[in-house]
């Protein structure tokens, strides 16, 4: 499998006896194991999944490419003794995922090499199986947005909308939301991460919904903005500027661009209308097992986009005291450009 080829390359490059993987997302990606406790130890010759008795059957079934090793005692104590028994001396570990206690346990007995972000880089290019699951998560989000437009009405609270939206995603097969759903109406639309509150949605409000579904471990992340009752000329102008920036990004971003070059496509449009200072976040980010992954589509991002990367395209404008607009689609980078994975309407809808 390609992912294990890349792990082997990492082992060779860093001259490692083993790679220790403890992050739940990286553990799942490499082994398919979905249990809540465990670790992977991967050597040039063997792959081991270490976990406790609760996951013996599950681990053996899910992690077919790994040998299940039954943990005795605490996980980190057992990992240390297990690696000693295999004569492992130089180990690579996820620098951003191993806590101080774990590091303290292994640093004196092994030569440890922090590998921050290295496994995440292996996850950058999605397999066909991953894309299929992501596509289903996107379909759930799309269908849920179309549904919620028939549900929302003046007088509801943002929290009521959130609860109904998440319940509908679950009905469609989601295991749950992929992050804390944002429902930001009226002046709260100026908050890019304005999670749902008890604010009542009023006539004349613009409402931003930023939400996503988890489907069999993979995330979607979509944003739509609509009006209730009516929309002011200023907010309609802002909507149209954001939509223009988003559509231009979808049309022009392609493999070979850096994250900063991609970000500039939308940012230049928004700046041209005088709203540059009101677009304070990056254009997008990668997603997959996590809703926020590499690569970043940001002003300082030097990572080059490659076919098979999944990225969001989500420009926005936020005006304090007035409101805001964000429009977001999920996409996959192809040889010829971006392929959209979300398709729900972006026409300015008034409920």
Relative helix content: 25-40%
Percent of residues in beta strands?
A: 15-25%
Q: Helix tally? A: 10
State the end-to-end distance: 49 Å
What's the overall average pLDDT, rounded?
95
Morphology call: elongated
Structural class: alpha+beta
Domain count: the total is 2
Radius of gyration: 23 Å
Instruction: State the CATH topology of the largest domain.
Output: Creatine Amidinohydrolase
Uncertain stretches of 5 or more adjacent residues: none
Q: How many strands? A: 19
Name of the CATH homologous superfamily of the largest domain: Creatinase/methionine aminopeptidase superfamily
CATH architecture of the largest domain: Alpha-Beta Complex
Supply the CATH class of the largest domain: Alpha Beta
What is the helix/strand order?
Answer: HEHEEHEHEHEHHHEEEEEEHHEEEEEEE
Major beta sheet, strand line-up: 4-3-2-1-5-6
Largest sheet: 6 strands, mixed
